[in-house]
Amino acid sequence: MPRPIVTFLSDFGTQDWFVGVVHGVIQTVAPDAHVVDLNHTIPPGHIARGAFVLEAAAHDFPPDTIHLAVVDPGVGTRRRALAVRARHQFFVGPDNGLLEWALSDPEAVVHELVEERWFRRPVSRTFHGRDIFAPVAGHITRGVPLEAFGPAVTDPVRLPQAHPVLRDGELVGRVVFIDRFGNALTNLTSRAIADAFGADAADETFAVRLLERPVGALARSYGDAPVGTIVAIIGSSGRLEIAQVGGDIAERHGIGEGDPVSLRVTSHPTSTSR
């Protein structure tokens, strides 16, 4: 039987002991669990960044993986703690929008974590990652059902502007992440493009605009254009990326998270009869 997988994402960094002790709590509850560190360099309190990284990574894990995510500026307040079953996986974290990708599943099942018998005692007001989320993730690997942790939740906090909108024939979104190469990743996913423009969207010719400035048509790869050219492609994460071939578009052109981006159809593929 394969070992249960628990992924761990946080804004804790790695210079302190916080990540290590969360590992320790998970392994105490679930010694057979395989803990995978997704990322611990999320900027402190940057919920939207954490939500993006979680979504980008979770796709590639097998069913029944438990994703533990802790970017929790509201720790110790009245914000709820959640466990979610969605997309054939589990998600554990604060109710602040961090679990947006899970919550966007229409079939998501959400429960609040209130039953203290599943927690590490005593519960600190400043470290719920260790005392609530980590032990719950461990117990889920052992088959504890979500309803055992607390009541169902029907109104979880959602992340504002997380998804693009179709407006006057344009799919309008925003930059959600700047990667280490300076590429601007957007929330315009290939699925959103197909939903907006039809199943044959991949065969359409699109025009892309960033900060209200034209970028051009979609390219198939970075190598489709000369060095220095700005291109738009569907990247490995399945979302529209805007890049400068051989350069850093974010640094050179002042692109940042939240900047508006849009895509529209400029022509349709032609068909010929034989």
TrEMBL record:
Pfam families: SAM_HAT_C, SAM_HAT_N
Occurrences of domain S-adenosyl-l-methionine hydroxide adenosyltransferase N-terminal (ranges): 6-150
Superkingdom of the source species: Bacteria
Biased composition (Polar residues): 264-274
SUPFAM superfamilies: Bacterial fluorinating enzyme, C-terminal domain, Bacterial fluorinating enzyme, N-terminal domain
Region called Disordered, residue ranges: 255-274
Domain S-adenosyl-l-methionine hydroxide adenosyltransferase C-terminal: start-end pairs: 173-261
Stored Gene3D superfamilies: Bacterial fluorinating enzyme like, S-adenosyl-l-methionine hydroxide adenosyltransferase, N-terminal
Database matches in InterPro entries: SAM_HAT_C, SAM_HAT_N, SAM_OH_AdoTrfase, SAM_OH_AdoTrfase_C_sf, SAM_OH_AdoTrfase_N_sf
Signal peptide start and end residues: none
Keywords annotated in UniProt: S-adenosyl-L-methionine
Entry similarity comment: Belongs to the SAM hydrolase / SAM-dependent halogenase family.
Protein's recorded name: SAM-dependent chlorinase/fluorinase
